[in-house]
Amino acid sequence: MTTVGIVGWRGMVGSVLLERMRAENDFQHFEPVLFSTSQAGTPGPELNGKTEPLRDANDLKALGEMDMIVSCQGGDYTKEVHGALRKAGYKGLWIDAASSLRMEENAVIILDPVNRKVIDRALESGVRDFIGGNCTVSLMLMGIHSLFDNGWVEWISASTYQAASGAGAKNMRELVAQMGAIASVPAARSASSAILDLDREVASRMRNPEFPTSEFGAPLAGSLIPWIDRGVDAGQTREEWKGHVETNKILGLPREVPVDGVCVRIGAMRSHSQALTIKLTRDVPLAEIESAISGSNPWVDFVPNDKAETLRRLSPAACSGTLTVPVGRVRKMKLGPEYLSLFTVGDQLLWGAAEPLRRMVLIALGKL
Ligand code: HSE
Predict the structure, then answer these.
(1) 239, 240, 263, 273: which to mutate for ligand 1, most atoms within 8 A of CB?
(2) CA dihedral defined by 31, 36, 40, 42, rounded to 10 degrees?
(3) Which protein residue has the closest C-alpha to ligand 1 atom 5?
(4) Contact partners, residue 13, CB within 8 Å, separation at least 6
(5) Could you tell me which of 90, 91, 18, 16 has the C-alpha nearest to residue 59?
(6) In sequence order, what are the beta bridge partners of 352?
(7) What is the dihedral of CA 333, 337, 338, 339, to 10 degrees?
(8) Is 135 annotated in the active site?
(9) Active-site residue 82, yes or no?
(10) Chain center to CA of 158
(11) Per-block average pLDDT, block size 10, for the chain (368 residues)?
């Protein structure tokens, strides 16, 4: 049976990956082998009805015995191990959640509902590195790839509202700790306190040096942070830079489509949202656009542009923990008939991270 080595399965993305593999009964198709960077030799969790000792994730020989390796361990691990393993002659597939190899020429960014043809061609031509995309980019494309498929997109400007999980597990905890610190100000205990007292106490608590900000570097609860990742050229952040390069690489379009915007961290737990301004290549009727988005893949939930449905379906609270990608607020803008505005949301740990990796294993095995 095909062996699939899994590294980084204890982390946030890795845990979601194993959860999804269990839920979909994927282990009937391959033998999972769990690796650890720190606890090799100790018993792993029960998988497929068996408990096996963890293998050493730094042992190139043990890794080399796997038909495929799935890594959710992070970019530093990938940088240390991937090159050395390939140099040692490893010919199996390397499927990775980290960004380090994404833009390498011989790597494909995987998002099969969107670029299955690119993936199939790559497999046929012997490509062996398959890398999950940036969560924001993957979620945007899950929502609107039909517009690209129809050749309707001239450019995109995105304003993102990204959840704490994208920054890591410790950041999610810090967000909740910040919420708790805010909720515990004295004026919050009474519904009859003067509203300006409540506001002053909250602002003062958020600016207090004791307010927990060691992970984010600033208050996120009750506020936002308009900077994600490090700065790159021309005033962009790296998260903003990824929007253009990864979108174009995933789609493999004949003409480059400019994508830019502002990436902002907000106080959601694990679902990223984004408002998109799309310059269309022509004045496509709204009904055609709506129908293309609705029918684009089984996970898109087209939300009519009305208040009740928007509140019910188009938010992190509504879709976190699910594979549903709601797309709504779709309308032509006052800027002109070629300008489209819409809003989309998606769980950044599922379609944004774990799900494309899980599906890639099945695609490589011919099971999807
Ligand atoms: N870079 C993303 C974020 C998460 O910070 O939200 C991973 O794609």
Answers:
(1) 239
(2) -70
(3) 166
(4) 72, 97, 349, 353, 354
(5) 90
(6) none
(7) 0
(8) yes
(9) no
(10) 15
(11) 97 97 97 97 91 97 98 98 98 97 96 97 98 98 98 98 98 98 96 96 98 98 98 97 97 94 98 98 98 98 98 98 98 98 98 98 98
